[in-house]
Amino acid sequence: MRTRPVVAIDGPVGAGKSTVARELARALGFEYLNTGAMYRAVAEAARYINIDECADDHHLEKLLDSITISFEGERVLLDGRDVSANILQPKIGDLASRLSTLPVVRARLRRLQRAAGEGGGVVMEGRDIGTAIFPDAEFKFFLTAEVKVRAARRFAELAAKGASISEAEVLKQLEERDRRDQQRQLAPLRKADDAVVIDSSALSVEQVVGAMLTRMEQSARGTGAIVTDRAHSMRDLKRH
Question: In what order do the strands lie in the sheet containing 81-82?
Fold first, then answer.
């Protein structure tokens, strides 16, 4: 039985999940796990493999057996190599989305993700955390935003890193990712029935995190599920 809760944050790409989850974890003193980065790390390792040809054989199983994925602060390490910048490339994101539809990949990463968070005290974000990875999470949020807002955010992020891509191309890729994530047969992107929906289109990171903290405190009041000093948490959030 967990002594501290699991916080699950799901939603489409560009909704701000990573930034919000990171800041919420910092405010609560929890660990933060970006499951999307794990799929992107697998995509980085598989970038030279034709997955259409090997999806039904053991090539991907061998690949998954041969690699290690770990986190060091904000850095994502693949076999000990920092791939944090590489995995933000649109082509890696697209490959990660395709890999996420394959049972062998999802099964392996699901075990890793479940093991990483089963002790609680973690904020985990992705697309199926509250529905497939931790359907028993104590707190579930579904973070969304208008697709054009998400595209603008993603474009700004990529442009800041020197990527050569237009905002129109980013929008097209996001719409394709949304379609693929929502229509895949295995653990599709959807809101858990008991998740709280937050639209971040017109909200700052601080406002979203504040809304999550408020909801968590309201839900946990009198249950002993979590003890949070709201004033301390918000001071810490603003400090960062």
Answer: 69-72, 75-78, 81-82
Separation of CA 127 from chain center:
6
Q: Which of 77, 81, 88, 59 is nearest to 162 (CA)?
A: 88
Q: What are phi and psi of 108, to 5 degrees?
A: -65, -45
- The structure's pTM equals 0.82
**CA-closest candidate to residue 196, choices 211, 178, 184:** 211
User: Cβ distance 141 to 196 under 8 Å?
Assistant: yes
Per-residue pLDDT tens, the chain, 240 aa: give them.
688 999 999 999 889 999 999 999 999 999 999 998 999 999 999 988 776 665 555 778 888 999 999 888 778 999 999 999 899 888 898 899 888 888 889 899 999 899 989 999 999 999 899 999 999 999 999 999 999 999 999 899 888 877 788 999 999 989 998 998 888 877 788 999 999 999 999 999 999 999 999 999 988 764 444 444 444 444 444 443
Residue 145 structure tokens: 């935003």
- The tokens for 162 are 């020197």
Q: Parallel, antiparallel, or unpaired: how do β-strands 122-126 and 196-199 relate? A: unpaired
Task: Yes or no: say if 114 and 136 are a contact pair by the CB < 8 Å rule.
Answer: no
